[in-house]
Design a protein that fits this description.
The radius of gyration is 23 Å and the shape is globular. About 35% of the residues lie in helices and about 20% in strands. The strands form five sheets. The chain has a seven-stranded mixed beta sheet with strand order 1-7-6-5-4-2-3, with helices on both faces. The longest helix is centred in the last third of the chain and has 24 residues. The chain has about 450 residues and is an alpha/beta fold. It has 14 helices and 20 strands. Among the domains are: about 140 residues, Methylthiotransferase, N-terminal domain (Rossmann fold, 3-Layer(aba) Sandwich), CATH 3.40.50; about 55 residues, OB fold (Dihydrolipoamide Acetyltransferase, E2P), CATH 2.40.50.140.
Amino acid sequence: MNEIKMTQIRVEEQDKKNRQGQSPSFFIHTFGCQMNESDSEHIAGLLISQGWQKVELPEKSNLAIINTCAVRAKSVDKFLSLLGRLKEIKKKRDLKIAIVGCVAQLEGENLLKLRPEIDYIFGPDNYLEILKIINHQAKAVATNWSHQWREHPLTQIHRESQVSAYVPVMEGCNNFCTYCIVPFVRGREKYRPARMILEEIKRLADQGFLEVQLLGQSITSYHDPESGKPLAELLQEIAQIDGLIWIRFITSHPKNLSKEIAQVMATEKKICRQLHLPVQSGSNSILKKMNRGYTREEYLEKIAMLRELMPDISLSTDIIVGFPGETEKDFEATLRLLEEVRFSNIFSFRYSPRPLTAASRWVDDVPFEVKRRRLIDLQNQQKKIQLENNATLVGQIMNVLCIGRSQKTPHLYCGRNEAHQVINFASPIEVVNKMVKVKITSFGPYSLQGELVAE
């Protein structure tokens, strides 16, 4: 990997602003997963702690940061589109551009050469160096790896929510699925000590947070690097912390989902009866090509175990269509899996080759139009399933954590239930950042509608 490369040139414009007493401002936009969102909260916290001001428009910033995702080609395309916009802004005013995250790690110094409008590049292991570099360097690339967990200062996190907090517990992945770029841009698995996780969550509970979401690219493989305790024991300890109402964890790998984890979920009421369990395909031949480490039958056994312990558990998944070699028979096996499991939600994608992965060296032999048609068919079938699932929820009263106003209908409030479904509901009183009871009155395929139930 590239070493940190820096030019020893002070950023005179920034120093001048600081001397004049003006607060420098930054804009940050995040692509990708919850881990990227958490990283952006840490970056923002570090800058704010040193007097920077966060703004919502890049046109009003001195520093524009793009936190990038390399998992799918579409995310990279979106990043490049935003970078083009920032380039135009930079032509008109003084603006520094920083690229962070997975694309930064993947491309490194090469990206700086190809796009001279970029000033700084930071890989996921280099966020703590942002302040040092942007205050003293005109151009810099920082993409060196750390093989141990590097703790961010816990007091310097600018959380987007006042009631639900992301808590990273591990990073990286050792699975090397043949389509997945994560091991190459996030590195191998490294685990955060349990004592640090518990300290942070206790602090969050004391601050009034009601929900924590534990993060890791393959979280079911977590073990405490100091004591060796597995995820199931960590979950049990977190569940004893006063003040918390909900605990979630993401993303689980089916092959590492143990019965012990499922039993803790079933016995500890604070742990949500909700699980994201990516299957990727319903075909054994495709699962083998993907190097997923389980068969269709083994995946379904895990689902049966979960539902035996928690009949009301809500399950979501990821699915890729058009993987190299996928036949119509393979795709039909995936459609049958949807009907058998009846997920509450799915995240579905057309396969796109990613650099460095094993599958990128294979012939991408499924035509684009076939991928497109399969994705539409898959999504239409899942839409039907979700409508049927959601119809059964009308009349139920459920706990909802309100996170704000509905974007499409601002007169309604928006929140999520224990199953992590979106609930838009009417309330005569202010309920943002509160846990409330909502009666479900109607539904669509992707959200539920309801009304506040008076306590």
